[in-house]
Amino acid sequence: MICDKCSHLFRGLGGQPLGWRTEHYSSYAELNHSANTGCGVCAIFERVLLEYYAHALCLTTDEAKIYHQDYDEAESWENCSETDASSSSDAMSLSNITEAEPTSFFIELLFCDIDPTFASQHAYHQNGLQGINYVRCRLRDHYTPDEVYPFLDISSLSGSPTLSQWNIVGKKVSPDPDLRLAQHWIDDCRKNHGSCAQLSDPPLPTRVLDLTALDDTLDLRLMVSSGKTGQYATLSHCWGTTYPIVLTLDTLEQFQKRIVFSELQPTFRDAVTVARSLKLRFLWIDSLCIIQKSSKDWEEQCARMAQIYKNAIVTLAGPAAAGCNTGFLHSRPAICQVTEVSDGAKPDNITLSHYGFNEDCEVLLPEHNSPLAKRGWVLQERLLSCRILYFGSSLMYLECFQNVRFENCHVPITWNYQKTDMVTKSRIERLQTDSDRFQYWRHILETYSPMLLTKPTDRLPALSGLASEIKKATNAEYLAGVWREDLIRGLAWCIPSYAWEESSPVVPSQDYIAPSWSWAAAKHRFTLGSFANCISAVGDIDIAKSQVSLAGLDRFGQVQDGFIEVQGRTKSVVLRNLPDRCVPGRRMFCVQSEDDQSDVLARYSPDCAYPADQADLEVMLLYLGHYLTKNEKIRYAALGIKATGGGQDEYRRIGLAYTELDEGYEFPKMFESLSRRKLRIV
């Protein structure tokens, strides 16, 4: 049974505009009454709200119910000027209610963006490119804790009018991942996505796991490919705190004979199971296919990483698996409640499902805060792979270069990556210009910056595959994470003030990582800020010479040392330690006008931490030039440098001075009358 309100609600879903919202009941009491008198839809709405508020306010569900009853009563007092304030002794306090607010219960539609190529081939383009896949519940017009709202899946049956006419694209999900659906996604991508085209019979990596069952068991073996070709999957995973079974020189011969399936870690067993289900004979897992504790083999395979992931039919990933012992083929959380609603044609064409409380109010997005997403090595595995099949905490989804397929959605969608701080998945060779490719590299760095690495010396190797793709497309000179042809932009990184309040993404190390001018030398999270998106840059320095010495075989891997020699203008300035204009309670170093001490010309971000009460600092600045951002704002930047004492005119980078807005026009005038000099920065 459903009430008249809910019946009208669902009959009116079709053709609603983006952001559509409607009032459902005027108070919690009315919603509760409808649920108690038999409306299944109102019952699930009420349950979701109570669970959400209980979580957000640290209450039991019974206390959350009392909270809303008291809120309704407070609203009634305000409207009717009643003075009887009696309530039960266990009622929740209303001291946090500062003013009367509307108590109406609202329903909002949440939309996803249907892949336009897919939509043009089907009926969805007739109703626009937005599909309805969630409803969001809002009790009261303006207030919920943390401004986050609970939501429910809304799904339709395949072939029903609600799917084709109303664009209700949500789909019911089974308790276990649907591997036949995954196979369909992969086949469809390979057949129909021109942007995902790859070799049909690619060369195999140096070593792969041959999944052909041995002696009617689940056991497998390691195979040396010796130039063979074939289709294979790769695995993107977290090692975790326990050391998995690995390939070493001692186990190489035994692994080529047999690897006992039951002795593999759960994550590896799951990967083997999925690859076999997808009818793939070969699987590549780093710890089982690269000889561990062999620096020579590691460097050789690291240099091939781009091709290993690019040529794989699919990369398998379990975002929530924090280690090899976790696995990812788990049954998903049970559905708390399912309510079937008639669309007027059939009795069960719309289904509302609640999978438990989820703090992330953004839906149909990757698990971007998962253990896997935080690992530095995983970024290039994601960006290089043609397809990544994720086995998430509650959903299976496939990301390719054209779109994303979710298990709970009938149609492929396009992601808004800006909501996730994730770099867009793009084929580097298909970007139009070298400028676009360098900008893409800077976006990669923004995503990579906070990611975790166990070994500090992996800061450059973890991006070597992506760097090799940029090199192949541009033929630019790679200098320890920075491209010489894009050097003016590449030098304009800084450590934001908030980074000093976070733990470092890399373990502190005394090992040499990179020259001081490279972002890879940063000991904390770095950012290029608006310099990452600048559409042009006019440098004030001339690059006379650049050199980087490699530490191994990988041209894009670890380095021993490096320098750049430039002709530029320098000036010593005194940095004032002032209160931050944007963040109360935080301090900032500033370059001030020599004529007007109240005029701040530029901010200064040091590469190392200083105490809050640090006195003013004297720093030499090397003027870099000016940058035009996408919104046509001009910004200026200068490197903070310090003499090393190792040679005449030899310096190292110690920070970045930069202007925030167009207000910084006076900053470059400090350098106009100065002569150029030659410097070496190491």
Describe this structure in words.
- The chain has 682 residues and is an alpha+beta fold.
- Strand 22 and strand 23 (600-606) form a beta hairpin.
- Helix 2 (28-36) crosses helix 3.
List keywords for this structure.
682 residues, single chain, 7-stranded antiparallel beta sheet, 27 strands, 3 domains, 8-stranded mixed beta sheet, HET, 16 helices
Count of discrete alpha- or pi-helical segments spanning 4 or more residues: 16
**What is the CA–CA distance across the termini?**
74 Å
Return the average pLDDT rounded to an integer: 84
- Biggest sheet strand order reads 6-5-8-7-9-12-13-14
Supply the number of structural domains: 3
Low-confidence stretches: 81-102, 142-147
Describe the structure in brief.
The chain is 23% helix and 24% strand. The model is unreliable at 81-102 and 142-147 (pLDDT under 50). The N and C termini lie far apart (74 Å).
Would you spell out the secondary-structure blueprint of this structure?
Blueprint: H1 4-11, E1 21-25, H2 28-36, H3 40-56, H4 61-80, E2 105-114, H5 116-121, E3 130-139, E4 151-156, H6 161-164, H7 179-192, E5 207-210, E6 221-224, E7 232-236, H8 252-257, H9 266-277, E8 282-284, H10 286-289, H11 295-303, H12 305-311, E9 314-317, E10 337-341, E11 350-354, H13 376-384, E12 387-391, E13 396-400, E14 404-406, E15 413-414, H14 434-448, H15 464-474, E16 478-479, E17 482-483, H16 487-490, E18 536-539, E19 542-550, E20 559-568, E21 570-579, E22 587-592, E23 600-606, E24 617-628, E25 634-643, E26 650-658, E27 677-681
Parallel strand pairs: 7-8, 7-9, 9-12, 26-27
Antiparallel strand pairs: 1-2, 2-3, 2-15, 3-4, 4-11, 5-6, 5-8, 10-11, 12-13, 13-14, 16-17, 18-24, 19-20, 20-27, 21-22, 21-24, 22-23, 23-26, 24-25, 25-26
Helix pairs in contact: 2-3, 3-4, 12-13, 14-15
